[in-house]
């Protein structure tokens, strides 16, 4: 049997493998010294982690949040009052909004047809049942002559 991967040995040391996989690893561990050393390392690491002290928290977050919610901080924002030079800061935004409105009205008028620009309209004189579509290639010269009105 080939050596199991490190993840399988770690799962074996944690006792989370299926019974058939656990039995296969136990049989392999009886003959493989390298895997037995790896398993001993996992078990020593597990025991070392269990002996570490549990960390103590510095403060209780729930109590801290409850205190802040019960006594909210006063607002630090000052109310806005217009001053003499404020219109200069707002002028670019006002000009942009005015230009957007004017161009929207102008383009809307062009779409409706009330503008002064000439709008290209499709001609009605196009033949509907032409044997060769516009931009198509003629495969037979007589069809092209007939569609163009040539003899």
Secondary structure blueprint with pairings:
Blueprint: H1 6-14, H2 19-29, H3 33-51, H4 61-70, H5 86-112, H6 141-148
Give an overview in words.
There is one protein chain. The protein is an all-alpha fold. It has a domain at 6-51. 56% of the residues lie in helices and 0% in strands. The protein is built from six helices and no strands. The protein has helices at residues 6-14, 19-29, 33-51, 61-70, 86-112, 141-148. Helix 1 (6-14) packs across helix 3 (33-51). The protein is flat, with a radius of gyration of 42 Å. It starts with 5 loop residues before the first helix and ends with a helix. The mean pLDDT is 80.
User: Major β-sheet, in short?
Assistant: none
Assign a percent range to the helix content: 55-70%
Termini separation comes to 91 Å
SSE run: HHHHHH
User: Could you tell me the mean pLDDT?
Assistant: 80
* Uncertain runs: none
What is the radius of gyration?
42 Å
The portion of residues forming beta strands comes to under 5%
Précis, in short:
The protein is an all-alpha fold and 151 residues long.
Properties at a glance:
151 residues, mainly alpha, 56% helix, flat
């Amino acid at each position: 049997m080939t050596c199991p991967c490190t993840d399988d040995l770690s799962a074996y040391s944690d006792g989370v493998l299926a019974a058939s996989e656990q039995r296969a690893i136990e049989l392999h561990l009886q003959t493989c010294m390298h895997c037995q050393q790896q398993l001993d390392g996992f078990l020593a690491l597990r025991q070392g982690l269990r002996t570490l002290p549990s960390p103590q928290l510095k403060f209780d977050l729930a109590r801290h949040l409850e205190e802040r919610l019960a006594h909210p901080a006063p607002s630090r924002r000052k109310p806005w009052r217009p001053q003499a030079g404020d219109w200069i800061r707002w002028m670019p935004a006002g000009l942009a909004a005015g230009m957007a409105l004017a161009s929207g009205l102008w383009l809307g008028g062009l779409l409706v047809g009330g503008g002064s620009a000439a709008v290209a309209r499709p001609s009605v004189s196009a033949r509907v049942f032409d044997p060769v579509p516009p931009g198509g290639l003629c495969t037979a010269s007589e069809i092209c002559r007939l569609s163009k009105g040539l003899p």
